[in-house]
Design a protein that fits this description.
single chain; 460 residues; alpha/beta; Rossmann fold; GMP Synthetase, Chain A, domain 3; 3 domains; 4-stranded mixed beta sheet; 11 helices; binds zinc ion
Length: 460
């Protein structure tokens, strides 16, 4: 145990070197690191992971056929439904199962599943977190000593806390990374959580987009006194433009997001320029594809496909994550060379289908509903092919009648004149068991929702 932790600490210290400045390294260096990781991961997967051994043999490929990230597209596009059919085939046989950290996904795709992470991958993740921590640290008085309140689904049993505890079993953390954290549950009352924030006095509040809408909407509405942090961060779901403005302007707080998934921890992060998400491409090569899996050029919105070159538990290569986004063509003015992904624009499964083959994409709906910036949060449920129910959370200053008229006309134009709309103003929207507030719930005739196919070409 002692020797194991000593080894783990050395491993962590080795991987921490240079991480804070890594986003500024020349792109050629990043791509060279990426190719090195691709070769190592494919060789590992071929040796230890049944799915990849079978697949490469079946396709008459060998590990040496994978020299760079582009070569990963030779593998079949791995969809969630395929993974769920037999997750065991994706788990490394190198170590006993009990040595891996088992993390359930939030089930936001409708297919709940477990992803296993190995200790070394988790320790690397601690090191990689320095990249986005530096983007947040500029807002903190002392970037090495601060308090952070983390508001997630499960409080102390949440994924970030589990990962941290798992890492602590395998290494001693450098003292300067001893940031004080408080873990709170989004399912506790707002009154309770505000009380805890007042007691803990955090410098950073971290949560998911929908909870920030709920928390800051509540503070604005009620005027309840609450300790304000120096910076607000979120790691999942988006926030509407109205909520972004509420936090930035009404509360005067900087807001920074990160792109994370249970399947791939540190995909990317927002910087102080707010131009998009800087991608950790050396760790998680990412491409954007159409519904046939064909790679789209930069600037076109499609579905995100990612390969995880860090985790040697459940090995996922050429994996369909399903978020909708575009790779941005221009570099960021901040000086970081890591390329940019647009902010996420919903998920591929969020396309709504109406009569006469009419298909409406989620960001067209999002743009319509959030236009005019009077909506903090919404949930649009398609109850039948022609009936929509829209729950809205709006600021007290909102002109309700005008909003109602605008939305009814806009939805009829977008979804078809036969579509009826029932609108409900609510104080908060019910969370799923997974803790999320999905903005769109499409009506589906079958249960196999992952097999749902969007139109071949995505256009604005
Ligand atoms: Zn930047």
């Amino acid at each position: 145990m002692f020797m194991g932790r000593l080894r783990g600490s050395g491993y962590l210290a080795y991987h921490l070197r240079g991480q804070a400045r890594y986003p500024f390294r020349p792109l050629a260096t990043v791509m060279r690191d990426q190719s090195r990781r691709v070769r190592a991961m494919v060789a590992y997967a071929y040796r230890y992971v049944p799915y990849y051994r079978e697949t490469l043999d079946r396709l008459s490929l060998r590990p040496c056929d994978f020299q760079s990230a582009d070569d990963l597209a030779q593998l079949p596009l791995l969809r969630t439904a395929e993974y769920c059919r037999d997750p065991e085939r994706f788990l490394s046989t190198e170590k006993p199962r009990g040595t891996y950290l088992a993390l359930p996904t939030s089930g936001s795709t409708g297919l709940a599943r477990i992803i296993y992470h190995d200790a070394r991958g988790c320790l690397q993740n601690i090191a990689h977190a320095e990249r986005d921590r530096m983007a947040v640290a500029r807002f903190l008085g002392d970037p090495l000593r601060y308090r952070e309140s983390v508001l997630t689904r499960d409080g102390l049993t949440s994924t970030p806390h589990k990962v941290q505890e798992f890492c602590r079993q395998h290494a001693w953390f450098p003292p300067y990374l001893g940031i004080q954290r408080q873990y709170l549950s989004m399912f506790d009352s707002l009154e309770h959580n505000v009380g805890e924030l007042n007691r803990f006095q955090p410098d950073v509040i971290h949560s998911i987009g929908s909870y920030l809408a709920e928390l800051f909407g509540y503070l604005k509405r009620t005027g309840v006194p609450c300790h304000l942090p120096r910076v607000v961060t979120y790691g999942s779901e988006g926030v509407s433009e109205a909520v972004r403005r509420l936090i930035l302007e009404d509360f005067g707080l900087p807001l920074i997001s990160a792109y994370q998934a249970t399947e791939a921890f540190k995909l990317g992060f927002e910087c102080e320029q707010h131009s998009g998400l800087h991608l950790n491409l050396d760790l998680y090569p990412l491409r954007v594809v159409d519904t046939d899996g064909k790679t789209l050029p930069r600037g076109e919105t499609g579905e995100v496909v990612v390969s995880n070159l860090v985790n040697r538990g459940t090995v996922l290569l050429n994996y369909h994550l399903g978020d909708l986004a575009a790779l941005l063509p221009d570099p960021c003015p901040c000086g970081r060379t890591l390329p940019l992904l647009s902010f996420l624009r919903g998920r591929a499964r969020d396309f709504l289908r109406f009569g006469e083959g009419r298909i409406v994409n989620p960001w067209a709906l999002d743009r319509l509903i959030c236009e005019g910036q009077e909506v903090w949060q919404y949930q649009l449920v398609q109850e039948t092919p022609t009936r929509l129910r829209l729950a809205l959370v709006v600021p007290p200053t909102c002109d309700l009648e005008q909003t109602r008229k605008r939305l009814a006309a806009g939805l009829a134009a977008l979804c078809g004149p036969e579509v009826t709309l029932e609108l409900a103003l609510v104080e908060r929207i019910q969370r799923t068991a997974g803790g999320k507030v999905p903005p769109l719930l499409a009506w589906r005739p079958d249960a196999e929702e992952e097999l749902f196919r969007a139109p071949a070409r995505l256009s604005d």
